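Handout, page 2. Input:
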Amino acid sequence: MVGLEAIIATGFEAPIEQVGEPLALAIMQGGEVTTERYAPNVDADEKLISWSMGKSITQALIGIAAAEGTIDVDAPAAVSEWSDPDDPRAAITVDHLLRMTSGLSFAEDYVDDQASDCLAMLFGEGKDDCAAYAASQPLIADPGTTFNYSSGTTNILCRLLGDIYGRDDAFSAWADSVLFHRIGMDVDLTFDAAGTWTGSSFLHATARDFVTFGQLYLQDGRWGDDQVLPSGWVEYASTKQAENDEGTGYGAHWWMRDNQPGVFQASGYECQRIIVDPRSDSVVVRLGKTPIELAPNVDAWLDEILAELL
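Output:
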């Protein structure tokens, strides 16, 4: 543990120009939280933003809906903008959306507000109804053929859930009952003006809550005697099915950590991470504010932590 503590210290004490601003680290190993560290201005009870880690949580809720029989993952997604059977987008399935292979046009850029569909959807013209903004995009590839990471596709999935389980408070109550409260999480969801949870980006929870969520996936969707996620859902999430332009593997709303076979992660803007490592029976959560160009430094530090846990 002396080695682990020293490694952790380097990630919190490094100059801000190397790693940005670390806020929280939590490690669960063998089903117990073994390590926590927080920035001086953060305590264990502070809820921090998920950014795109919310996509992986959306995947869990889709899985529960599939188990309840309200969503068929392999069927065309019930999206009103594509209801005309002659619309080529009518062929897009829930599975395509989960694997980011819908074929829809969407520019996932976090800096250039002149080119970014993501920024327009979350903060600009699409912010009142994020799913409608995303669903209105044209098809630029046949569904299932091309990987295009898109926050818009996640918000379409969230609207599908909202169509079934309700908007705003009704949706929160459902999500709490079927997922969050079942495993002991206390989260805050952010909804757009249409009442749809912005699951691509906006969930707030503590580091302990996020590590708890990772533990659910480490345990193949089980929590004690309770099978929270359907059988095979974690394998579906964590099996490489596509890759981005840099060659990083993607499953179904979860990323692969390709340099460590069998390890997968929820990943968010500013280097938010929930890393699930079956090799060491551990989950590592890192939360912070790190510019994209510094993310490799943080991931190298996380690799050191994972190696120490083996």
